[in-house]
Amino acid sequence: MHKGSATHRGKAVVTVIMSDQRILVILRGDKVPAAGYWTPPAGKIEPGEDQPAAVIRETREEVGLTVQPIRCVWQCPAHGANYDLYWWLANPIAGNLKVADDEVAAARWIYPNEFANLERTFPEARDFFADILPALPEWQGRVEGRDNES
Predict the structure, then answer these.
(1) Rounded-to-integer distance, Cα 129 and Cα 125, Å
(2) Are 112 and 125 in contact (CB under 8 A)?
(3) CA–CA distance, 59 with 34 (Å, rounded to integer)
(4) Is residue 149 part of a domain?
(5) Pairwise CA distance, residues 134 & 118, whole Å
(6) 54 found inside a domain
(7) Is residue 106 part of a domain?
(8) Which candidate among 68, 84, 94, 146 keeps its CA 20 to 30 Å from the CA of 50?
(9) Which domain holds residue 74?
């Protein structure tokens, strides 16, 4: 058993919520690790919980939305923490955007190419929005044929 050993890595989900051609990002609040960083909603996977359930729970807790998890599209180590991050695409299906004041300082819908311009972001997240997301078929289907729209 590795539980409790120095080699045990925690697991967390990152939820990339897609609405039209935008994604939801949050500014992490003062009472959580990595406060002041912009990131998609994210959180630890609870004991006995699978990844899709964690995606749904964390999103509802942090931003008040119910999402439909689509699939896990990337995995990376957390920046400066002993966690593996599992990046999930999700669609919002119900609820109104309402941030959990104890965990989230702000939330906004942005275009993925705007992520690199936000202050205080993690390099892994910048890599995801610059390189991973644009190559995914789920994202390409959202932007095809819309390049000429304003």
Answers:
(1) 6
(2) no
(3) 17
(4) no
(5) 18
(6) yes
(7) yes
(8) 94
(9) 10-143
Longest dimension (CA), the chain: 56
Count structural domains, the chain.
1
Assign residue 87 the CATH number of its domain. Answer: 3.90.79.10
d(CA 61, CA 89): 17
Total-model pTM: 0.90
- Token pair, residue 42, equals 């994210």
As a whole number of angstroms, the distance between CA 55 and CA 73 comes to: 13
Distance, first Cα to last Cα, the chain: 55
Question: Considering the domain boundaries, does residue 17 fall inside one?
Answer: yes
Tokens 């406060």, located at residue: 35
pLDDT tens column, 65-111: 999 999 999 999 998 889 999 999 999 999 999 999 889 999 999 99
Q: Which two tokens stand for residue 31?
A: 């009472």
Q: Report whether 112 contacts 20 (CB < 8 A).
A: no
Helix (H) or strand (E) holding 137: helix 137-143
Query: What count of Cα atoms within 13 Å lies in the side-chain half-sphere of residue 95?
Result: 18
